[in-house]
Design a protein that fits this description.
By secondary structure, the chain is an all-beta fold. The chain has one domain. The protein is built from no helices and 4 strands. A 4-stranded mixed sheet has the order 1-4-3-2, with no helix packed on it. GO terms for molecular function: structural constituent of ribosome. Pfam families: Ribosomal_L36.
C-alpha cells in the first residue's frame, strides 16, 4: 500500500474508489488490487 499526500492521481485508475474509514482516506480497487493507497 502506498501512502500518498494526494490520492487524486491514484483514484483515476479504472475501478478505484476513495473510501473514508476510521478518519483515513483509502483508495481501493477491486479490478486491479495493486492500486491501494492511504492518506492521513
Amino acid at each position: 500500500m502506498k501512502v500518498r499526500s494526494s490520492l487524486r492521481s491514484l483514484a483515476r485508475q479504472p475501478g478505484s474508489k476513495v473510501v473514508r474509514r476510521r478518519g483515513h482516506l483509502y483508495v481501493i480497487n477491486k479490478l486491479n488490487p495493486r492500486f491501494k493507497a492511504r492518506q492521513g
